[in-house]
Amino acid sequence: MKLWLFIAKRIVFAFIAIIGLTFIVFILLHTAGNNLLLSEYINPRLTGPAREQVIHELTLKFHLNDPIYVQYFYWLVAIFSGDLGYTNTPIYSGPVSGAIALFLPNTILLTIIASILIWIIGVPIGVRSAVKRDSAFDQSVRVVSFALYSMPIYLVAFLLILVFGVYLKILPFAFSLSPTLASNLSWYVNGVSYPTHIVIIDALIHGNLTAFANAILHAILPALTLALSTIAGIMRILRASMLEVLDQDYVRLARAKGVPEKVVINLHARRNALIPVLTLYGYTVASLLGGAVVIEDIFSYPGMGYWTTQALLNNDVGGIMASTLIFGIVFVIASLLLDIIYALIDPRIRY
Amino acid sequence: MEKRSSQLKLSLKIFFSNPTAVIGLIIFLAYVIDAIIVEVSPGLLGIQNPNQLQMNFINPVPQPPSPHHPLGTTYPGIDLLKGILAAIRIDLYYSVVIVIGGAIIGSVIGIIAGYRGGIIDDILMRITDIFFAIPYLVLALAIGFVLGRTTESMSIALIIVWWPLYARYARAQTLSIKRMPFIDAAKVSNVGSLKIMFKHVLPNVLPPIFVQISLDLGSIMVIFSVLSFIGLITNPNLPELGYLTSLGLQYIQTAPWTVIFPGLAITIFALAVNLMGDGLRDLLDPRRRSSI
């Protein structure tokens, strides 16, 4: 099959997956009943006929008396034109799109830092582990990654908090900025910073280097937790694929030619061993976004995850629906991009 | 018949020659036995009501481990050892239900897709892709919202996200079995395709599925506890490891054992079933077989 055909096919599948996802979310919300769906739009102080009137108007507006597929159609149109409804949680009240603009940037930032950490911690260790196969280093790496692999993400978070926050007292483990520092800043309100909503970048924009350093310190533990929770899988795959590559003829040939061992490993072997890691890496980055729900909750870090748990605890329809869609769509798009990158790198994969 | 028993002997020999797999099996059995004791006769372990954590508001602040409370207590005055022993039963039960549920749905869909092929395969696998694309937390949030935040609704959410994995395994396995001569023989002797699928294909798909089940038990218990931890299961006093961990949250700085011990109970289980699963996987690997 030609490359462009493969890519076209994957894009169509991704589109179908996203439509399927919206369908599932819609059905779920639909079964929750109209009253819950409308609750975000009705002023809770309204009673009697006035309330009935509002409900009637909203029912017409959202086509709630029409057959379910008609409702689904109008709902889809609204979603794709950016109207995701309203959300009402203690940390934010207003249109869902506004909440996403406020909270998504921090989550993306955490995800980026975590994926860099995965790369700079996981890859060298995985490679070394394979090169020094069965050495004490290899054995201990395998034990540690096996343990990490089996740990609930919150336990990883607590262990890091205990070591770095409580005993060593070198890293903060709550909020995105120290509260005493934040109380004097005009651009930091209720855990959200302005204008980009990414604390680290906003601190730079406002030229506040103290806040900048402080914000970085606050991001380390949540990002490290995110990274550690997935690093074990990466190291395992990399080690296995590195061992396989080191056994290949071209590596043997390079060695026989007298190519220095360093070059053999870094240039010949590692590059090829990274191909399978790349796929896993992409899925990892996508799942980091999901993992952020738990981690942001533990670290009270004001991102999508923090807002999602708030929405959940407050039975907030708009918030839950939006985060379901966004996390799902990000996942679908990430796996689409990966399949394409993978096909470009490794011609054998096209079928 | 003789061949089969010698095969079994060989399998057992391979499994028991792997010390880590045996340790995994022993730990797994310990958890199972604990669950059975709590189910049948909780009094043996000093547990009064296996469905409820015993609170003690006279002394609610977490106490460090002592002879009276070997693992210490967590808020509000819950003995952690008893709490964990009781919680294992619930976590184990739901993990098994979820994994088996997902495996059954996935295997059936995977076998049908793989055996039928063509358009049926395409449709079933695209549906599988859609479900595969949903992050578990996302679906758990949505289902928790609609069906309520209960153990049952979380189990449903996890089964829904877990079956696609099994569908893919079963399909891949079916595709290779489909080409084997005994399937052709069955076709020639006019056996119905439904019968072929479930009488001839299924038994051959099961062994790798079984290995996957044992590997997944740990991940599912971890995920189930995470869902409970973030508040997606609201059943106060339910002995559940994630909930038990969350009770100690406010005391993490002064009483770290309140979060570490329940967390470890899950980690050890997940480690054990992973080791056991790796051992089981070796049984299916012909290269390993011939080396012994």
From TrEMBL, chain A:
Membrane topology value: Multi-pass membrane protein
Gene3D superfamilies tied to this protein: MetI-like
Any GO BP annotation: transmembrane transport
Location of the protein in the cell: Cell membrane
Pfam families per record: BPD_transp_1
Transmembrane intervals: 12-32, 99-126, 146-167, 211-234, 280-300, 320-345
PROSITE patterns recorded: ABC_TM1
Domain of life: Archaea
Key words of the record: Cell membrane, Membrane, Transmembrane, Transmembrane helix, Transport
ABC transmembrane type-1 domain ranges (all copies): 104-342
SUPFAM superfamilies recorded: MetI-like (SSF161098)
An annotated GO cellular component: plasma membrane
Family: Belongs to the binding-protein-dependent transport system permease family.
Name of the protein: Peptide transport system permease protein
TrEMBL record, chain B:
Cellular compartments per GO CC: plasma membrane
A single GO BP: transmembrane transport
Membrane topology: Multi-pass membrane protein
Main subcellular localisation: membrane
Subcellular location: Cell membrane
Sorted UniProt keywords: Cell membrane, Membrane, Transmembrane, Transmembrane helix, Transport
Record family assignment: Belongs to the binding-protein-dependent transport system permease family.
Name of the protein described by the UniProt record: Peptide transport system permease protein
Source species of the chain: Sulfolobus acidocaldarius (strain ATCC 33909 / DSM 639 / JCM 8929 / NBRC 15157 / NCIMB 11770)
